[in-house]
Model the fold of this input.
Amino acid sequence: MSIELKPCPFCGKSGKELRINRIMFSGSIFDKHLFFIECPSCHWCGETKLFAWRAKRAWNRRADK
Done:
């Protein structure tokens, strides 16, 4: 599933230049990777999600507002 990111709603940085960051969460039986989108220009971050495609979808929803 390929989701094209919309530009940053705060500084207007192109969606192609945004970063998909992954963090490791451990503290339960299973380790999990969590994903979020970050703008390299203004360093604004989107919601943290369990899957990269969900983080992209959340970023695009927030960018519409």
